[in-house]
């Protein structure tokens, strides 16, 4: 399912900063106390290095101001600011005369990789983590002697890598759960077809494509004949098996650019560009007869698109199309079932706008099986 990239209105209580931006703002404040300490305690820094620390603080302030201004950083912006911030941390650690203070500041190198792991592409996370590892290892080796330098380097590298790995693992797990929940919310659990909620984005895309191509839209309602008797005589498990088989037969015939969904009960919907689904109804009838031991009735409605008129609410348009197909389906049922019937009139006023949204479509009829 294709996700739209349009901008949605932001709720009033929603922050315009993402996790990375907030992390950059709060973590950048770590350089400010260093300047205060260096002013109050001159021996805190190596001799003559105060101007360098002042330059780092200025860069930090610019980083914070820029992040506050743009809100959500792009991947490139985050990479540039994050790399600059880590370089500033490394320089600060080198400037501190006390080795214990230098090690404490070196630990701050873990912040940027952890932030990257929370919301950046893998290449960005790996790049920033690698940079932080190099800085941390180099700072740990400087000033240490013998085996101690290797122990210090290993500890510093671990301090950088472990938080990033943990956050990356948590993010992957969360994305997996989110994708699973989205799939469950958008699909019918019995047949695996889209449900109404799941098909709306696809329907919107098809309507836009129809308007751009100035072609017609066709919708078919497929209803299993005498389905109630299947449940009554063979049981609900057998009825579920029939629905699954019918759904598979329909899906096998529907072209890839069309939408197929289960509306509920024994009713299915197929919607696509008219040029792509011409003759599809008869193929569905034959496929169901051949493989499912039941028959279906199909109602079809079609709407011609007028140029430049895609200004209707998607759900309203879908309801109008479906209602027209529903009336055609009623005709097929009353004519003896196991057949296709077509709506006689154009069911949708594509002039759209407020007038189209004000109209109310009466609820769809549910046919006795």
TrEMBL record:
Q: Membrane-spanning regions, if any? A: 21-40, 52-71, 78-96, 126-144, 150-170
Family annotation (PANTHER family) = DIGUANYLATE CYCLASE DGCM-RELATED, REGULATORY COMPONENTS OF SENSORY TRANSDUCTION SYSTEM
Q: Which SUPFAM superfamilies match?
A: Nucleotide cyclase (SSF55073)
User: Where is the GGDEF domain positioned along the sequence?
Assistant: 215-345
- Keyword vocabulary terms for this entry: Membrane, Transmembrane, Transmembrane helix
Q: Which domain of life is it from?
A: Bacteria
This chain's source organism reads Rhodococcoides corynebacterioides
Tell me one Pfam family matched here: GGDEF
- SMART domains registered for this protein in UniProt: GGDEF
Annotated protein name in UniProt: GGDEF domain-containing protein
Does Membrane count among this protein's keywords? yes
